[in-house]
Amino acid sequence: MARLDFEEVVARYDKRLFNVMYGLTGDYHDALDLTEEAFIRAMKAYPRFRGEADPFTWLYRIALNVLKKRYRKNARRAELWREHREKDPSPSSETRTAEHAVIEEERAQVVRQAIAQLPTAFREAITLRYMDEMSYEEISTAAGCSIGTVKSRISRGKALLADLLGDKV
């Protein structure tokens, strides 16, 4: 089988990949985002694609990895909110109303804005640990510093976040 140009791969499989992502997520906009991200990653990796597998199988694997990464991030964010709610209980999921969902989203926005205000080293450590769910060792390798430095940055970043947030959440 002759290797296709990447543009041909996109033209041939974009709708099919979107449909798979839509079926997995049940959300049109998430499916669009995931499909786009999968094609971006595929485009970067295409020079290394040997053509031994069917192009759609290869794309599907990339898309599935993108989806898993998104779910891991979202799961970690949900865990952080559960931890926060345990400290400041809100109504149970059975009684949660649209109003509570709006309040929760507003809180999330306040936290995101506070994280954005942190110095770069602290912001990166907090994001890698709590959003990307990286271990201290992985962060150490990515940041090029010791594990002790990573722990210190996370601790100091959390303290700064607490000061920035105060009573806002």
Characterise this structure:
Helices cover 77% and strands 0% of the residues. By secondary structure, the chain is an all-alpha fold. The protein starts with 5 loop residues before the first helix and ends with a helix. The model has no long low-confidence stretch (mean pLDDT 81).
List the topology elements:
Elements: H1 6-25, H2 28-45, H3 55-87, H4 98-117, H5 120-131, H6 136-143, H7 147-165
Helix pairs in contact: 1-2, 1-3, 2-3, 5-7, 6-7
| Uncertain stretches of 5 or more adjacent residues | none
Report the structural category: mainly alpha
Proportion of residues in extended strands: under 5%
Assign a percent range to the helix content: over 70%
CATH-scheme architecture of the largest domain:
Orthogonal Bundle
What count of helical segments does DSSP give?
Answer: 7
Number of strands: 0
Classify the fold: give the CATH topology of the largest domain: Rna Polymerase Sigma Factor, Chain: A
> Mean pLDDT, rounded to whole units?
81
